[in-house]
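As agreed, record passed on underneath.
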Amino acid sequence: MKYYPVNLDVRNRKCLVVGGGSVGTRKVKTLLECGATVTVISKEMSKDLKKFAAKEMLLLKERPYRSSDLENMFLVICTTSDEKLNLKINSDAEKRNMLCNVADVPEVCNFILPAIVQRGDLIIAISTSGNSPAFAKKLRKDLEKQFGQEYAVFLTLMGAIRKKLLTENHEPEAHKHLFEKLIKQGVLDMIRENKKATISNLLLKTLGKGYEFEELLKD
């Protein structure tokens, strides 16, 4: 099986999770972090899901699944231990040409969820195409050691610089070389070593006045 790698924009999209246990809760947390509008259906719900519902962060339906629950949904994730129910949900989703994931059963999914390393806006997805979730987990732990929080700061800085340049009517292609120069000059290492003054000096030489490191991070 060859999967087509893609990052989905689920902001304000209706997403359904069937199953309210620990696995379902993890899936819900990720969807919420990405801005999805989440509905959870299960006869039993975790404490965290109930807390989210109390804060009106999602909609809980404490009852069995119905085929009609898929109406107007963008995607569905099944996290129940009921194989027959999971297959039923998958069949219902396929009839609607919907995105459907059944946790730990890649052969009945039309998309799978990778192991993730996240540092701010940096997202590293690891997939073994369903062949070895245990190895994907190991790789995730290895990469978590390699990629520290300096990557989150770095991308925040790059995003702030890009936004500021665009407001000054710079065409994206025109400032491509500026970003390449900053990267080659080692701004990431400077962030890791907390050399704020050095970074500001580099920004001044490369971009001119108005690009102070700490000020850019505030925006």
Observations:
- The domain at 1-112 is CATH 3.40.50.720 (Rossmann fold).
- Residues 150-167 form the longest helix (18 residues).
- The chain has three domains: 1-112, 114-147, 150-218.
- The chain is about 45% helix and 15% strand.
